[in-house]
Amino acid sequence: MKNILKYLLVGFVFGIVLTKSEAVSWYRIYEMFQFQSFHMYGIISVAILTGIIGIQIIKRNNIKDIKGESIEIPDKEKGSARYVIGGLFFGLGWALVGSCPGPIFILLGAGFWTVLIVLFGALVGTYLYGLLKSKLPH
Amino acid sequence: MDIIFQTWSWYVSGFLIGLIMLALIYFGKSFGMSSNLRSLCSMAGLGKRVAFFDFDWKAQRWNLVVVLGAMLGGFVAVHFMSDASNVNINPDTIEQLATLGIDAPNGKLVPDALFGMSILESPKSIFILLIGGVLIGFGSRYAGGCTSGHAISGLSNLQIPSLKAVIGFFIGGLIMAHFLLPLILN
């Protein structure tokens, strides 16, 4: 139970932060892609900076995880095509509906019911990738 | 009390998102939202038809709990922590959106023109949300991650593949926001 609660709590904080920072807002994403505000760039940059410092502290001090096991963060697979092409598709969708997978769920929880259509589409898109995986350049 | 209702600054928000990612690493997991979409497909039984979904989604249950928490967080933040002063975007952006027929935020997170219940009467509006979702789902799985998995987790761990993905995100986003969106909305 305690095990489940810590994930619920992390998710809860994530939902609050993304809503209160307005990173879940279609308007903020549009504004970002129009270069009309620093807000989203600031959020992403500080998150990455915090992450870089945190991961370096973990690696250099050999910090163990909650179970006392050493922390291994696997490298992403090498390659280019899947990242650039897949990223391009993702970006088109991100700017169109103004939400990435996290915000889709957060907005649904907040009661924006039409986002169910986006979620359904995202599941269809995920299914299409699974179906076409072997035929796509990676 | 202001701090509850006003828009949270980029530096506080960014710092907290970084900590959320680090907390999941400390729990022996990783921060990535789009993989939940694959888990949901697997839960729906698609593993019988497509090998990509034939995996042990139960090992990913922790991430679905994160999603559940995020939904609760969204509910609390929108219903108990909102204010009409929120989503105070650039006035130039508002003006530009008006020419595309998109209503000004006035405290709303999403425009009624795209997400209001009245869009259910317009096949075109439904199609926009559906296609946006398909692009997000297909693209994030093809690229192996989304904003959380690549932009935050991957770049924090100095991963070149994630940088390539993020460049792809932005090229796609810029093409949509500057060229396609005006065509779609007009």
From TrEMBL, chain A:
UniProt keywords, alphabetically: Membrane, Transmembrane, Transmembrane helix
InterPro entries in the cross-refs: DUF6691
Protein name, as recorded: Uncharacterized protein
Domain of life the protein comes from: Bacteria
TM region positions: 39-58, 79-97, 103-132
From TrEMBL, chain B:
Membrane topology annotation: Multi-pass membrane protein
Pfam family, one: Sulf_transp
Domain of life: Bacteria
Subcellular localization, as worded in the UniProt entry: Cell inner membrane
Residue ranges crossing the lipid bilayer per the database entry: 6-28, 62-81, 126-144, 165-185
GO CC annotation terms, alphabetical: plasma membrane
Chief location bin: membrane
Name of the protein in question: Uncharacterized protein
Highest classification ranks of the organism: Bacteria, Pseudomonadati, Bacteroidota, Flavobacteriia, Flavobacteriales
